[in-house]
Amino acid sequence: MRFSVMCSTAFVSVCAGAGLCAISTVANAQAQIERLGWPTVARDSSDPYVRYTSPGQCEQAARRLFDQYWRDKRADTIRYTPETDSVPAPVLLATRQCAARFSAATVEPRELLDLAYLYLWTQQDDLARAAMARLERTNANRSTTDRAWPLYLYVKGLLQARPGRLREVRTAMQQLDAVGASAATWRLFAHNLYASYAVMINDLGTAESEARAALTASHQMSFPDRVDWAGDIQTTYFTLTTPVSMTRGGPVALAVLDTAVTDLSPLRPAGSGDQQEIRDGIRRRRTPLAALGKHGLPPVHATTWFGTNGDTTRPRRGVATLLISTPSSCDGGCYPMFATIQRLHATYGDRLDIVLMTATRGFFRDQLILSPTAEADSSGNYYTRFLQLPVALAVESTSFAYAPDGRRQNTQVVNARSYPFDRPAIFLDPSGTVRWVGEVSPYDERLLDGVIRSSVEYLKHAAR
Amino acid sequence: MSSFTSMRTLRLPSRSAPVTVSPQRSPAYDTHADPDTDGRFLSRAACQALATRVIAMATGGGETRLEINSRWTGNVRWARNDISTSGDTQVSRVEIGRSIHRASGGAYTNAPSDDALRACVARAEAMLQFQRENPDTYPDPPKPIHPHLTPTLWFDRTIELDDVTRASIADRAIGPAKQAQLLAAGYLAVGANGRAVIHSDGLFRYYPYTTVQCTITVRDPKGQGSGWAGVDWNDWARVDVEHLAQTALDKCLRSRNPVAVEPGRYTAILEPQAVCDLVFMLVDWALARGPAENGMGPFADPAKPGSSRIGQRVVDPRITLGIDPMDPDCGFVPFDGNGEPFQPVNWIEHGILKALSYERTYGVQLLGRDSALPNPYAFRLSGGTSTIDEMIASTARGLVVTRFNDVQLLDRNSLLCTGTTRDGVWLVEHGAVTKPVKNFRFTESPMFVLNNVEQLGAPQRVFHPGSPVVVPPLKARDFSFTSLIDAI
How confident is the model at residue B378 (pLDDT cuts 50, 70, 90)? Predict the structure, then answer.
């Protein structure tokens, strides 16, 4: 198993970026399929896919195989790059074997969308288009709303495909928009999805235009539909704030949120808890946006430092700094963040100072620790020695009180009071100005990378 | 008889280091010899050997956890004044849990063969595959192993009750009913058990105990009356079959030809078994700290979201509800399925909520304690000395209830329950029992009852196999009987 994992990882690194893995690697892929225990091409007359009686089953099998393929891979060996990511060859081969049982001309109309999805897995886009064309013909006599729904689902499939089929997405989106107000809800969903995708790949222009298109669609929805999908409309506003804040600054993004309050409040009964919930959600979103452009944040406070070589002043003057608030230990859920940290360090080296800020909690993982010093040491060992993260680690000692029922109550530490931005990470450019507030994750990595790059490049340019 | 005293090193294949499993034995317990299992159930050594086999079967490293409940029972059952079945059963249930990189899966089997155990381990590992392994292999220190208490739960005389003796006891139980030309039915079972919790990281717990349970129902041949009595203990000597038979007979005779009275709110005199049937719903559903602090159950503090009502008065100030594994009338195996030792605790003391159960993780993260406070679902409820006769004498109008049947929870927050009365309900008027009445369906919460207590009696052991219960009779006002039912 270990052997196959290593082989697979190496194999994908070759294929990544190519979009379609070469079928010349069939023999290799076939061997990997067998090692993973998946159905293989029959050596006798029996059909290993005989129980897969619909394209949907094959498509689900493809998802499962894909997940299974990656499940034992360490998070730091993969990075989802949606516009270039590919289907691993063993999954591709197995899925093609399954897909060979069906064709767009013969399956039941209700299977056509699943078949199109399946062909996206098998990288047979022409066949996917043919399936959608037949579906469109089949639905010709149905209402525009009914015809728009599968189109939206197809857009969703195209965006989730590996790689994402952006040209196809734009074509399908045009078709969807052409349907007009009767498909407003599906247009909201589709544009919203595309906007999020664009944020992920740091295409801020597309992100803004798609988010605005989604909001335009939302205003064409009926009032009951707007009530039903208020959460999606709110999400669209939040998505829109990202490109707006990055390109035109926090105040303009705050104005977007003001519009959101005006737009969304009437969708809930006046004075109700539901309405307050919407307003509270938007208010929480304001805090990080309001922080953008701030200058002169207080220095990071710590009882114990690790990984600083003695220089414990953070942020350092003239150095771009990424401050990340993190628990005193963090399990596998943080591994994507750790991988992003490693990649950012590999890219920017000493030009980017990454600081993890944590505070003692009285325990470390599942172990009771009574001494703050021992807990700080545990955190230091974990982050800087075991994980070998290229970071400076600031550990603050938390003081505890006890409630009458015996529960320990933590006092708020200095850093939590100093950086109340509601999001766990803050990027400061070399001048100490807040340029980005968010979460460090592979999803936001391209965006964050863009912000850091522009800051560092600016510094280089200014020095010249 | 054999005992396991040496340290053994068990080697796991591939991804993990060799694991040392050492039996953790309480010093107090070690002063006693293990009982002779006579091949009826798995001994300490047999459990250890089985664990060694299972741990060696595990693939992929990680941790292996076993919970073994090995049991022999000898029973006799009678109906319509005649013995209907008699038998011995032997079963060892082996639950196997596997954890690799914090993904875990489990399976169980009652077959101890190598093939069956291997299949069970494979099933557990297959279940584990449904979870995502955490690639973080940062080594955790081993969890502390706290010593457990050592109640006396083994009585040779219990398992010396062979089939011939059991049959003669059944005859004695049938006798009074037969003589009164009534029909007796019942069940007597004795058991010898070995309970083990063994983890590949070194935890080893084993405890042998005996059990006996006896229930007797006496019914009128015309279906006009029914009486019941029952009890369970670890020690056969504590079971008074003649008394049980006489109680069931007496209840049957007195419950014949019941009359219907209007449903409604009555002062209810609940015999101990009825108290157990109702209050167990509280013990079963409400004594966990996490849910209470998340707003669930009667012990969530509505005035302070995120908090429980620990420190507040929750029931009548006379009532104390607690556990103690060493309680001579209410002892139980002193550790749970995770090997966490049970400690004496009063959940409720003089009406004030003092503690709620929690897992070790909760203890470490929120209380600064390196241990769990598990709930064994056994309990002792105490607080009074009144007799049932005194309760009746002080009641203007009320009902005496023998026990409840089929008690179901309707609402987790209020603990509102429903169920039916059974095996004898009597009307009390002007300080005396006047007539048997038909059974009722009730809709009531133990919280309501425990806040409306008028009198409490002396606690006594009742029938609740699996988790011993000691409760008193009690008199509560305004108990809600909601409809009549025809069953006797």
Answer: very high
